[in-house]
Amino acid sequence: MGNIFDRIWKLSASPKQGKVLVIDDSVVDRTFSSKALACVYDVLSAEDGVSGISLAMEHRPDLIVLDYEMPGMNGPEVCCELKKNIYLKDIPVIFLTGRDKPSAVINSFQEGADVFLTKPVSKGELLTRVRQTLLSGNIKE
Question: What domains are defined for the chain?
């Protein structure tokens, strides 16, 4: 078994396993999520809900990682718009947020979320939940 650097190199050298869109107004959180996922997936990122929906329309990602609290359109509003769009409605959505109140969790799932994760999250947990969601059959052709 090789060391951690050998395993990371193999992951980064292998073909990407899909396209993920990260929508988060926090530069720090958006960068963390994007870098964590980039070793396995092609990653797009947006700093707000409106540009996130636009990128989703343009690139139709395989999965969206979405923050809950953002200025303008918040995460649940973005999720609702995605799920109303015939072209985007089947894209799985993972909420990744600092909000851990039961009302936020319930609201997220009511608007169509597939997974709800709270920050801080480890790179390993994020990668695992993205992979599980993509493999779970939530993706509809």
Answer: 17-135 (3.40.50.2300)
User: 115-118 and 93-97: which strand pairing?
Assistant: parallel
Per-residue pLDDT tens over the stretch 58-111: 999 999 999 999 999 999 999 999 999 999 999 999 999 988 889 899 999 999
**Closest-CA residue to 91 (of 112, 70, 76):** 112
DSSP 97: E
What is the chain's alpha carbon radius of gyration, rounded to the nearest angstrom? 15
Report d(CA 45, CA 52) in Å as an integer. 7
Confidence (pTM)? 0.85
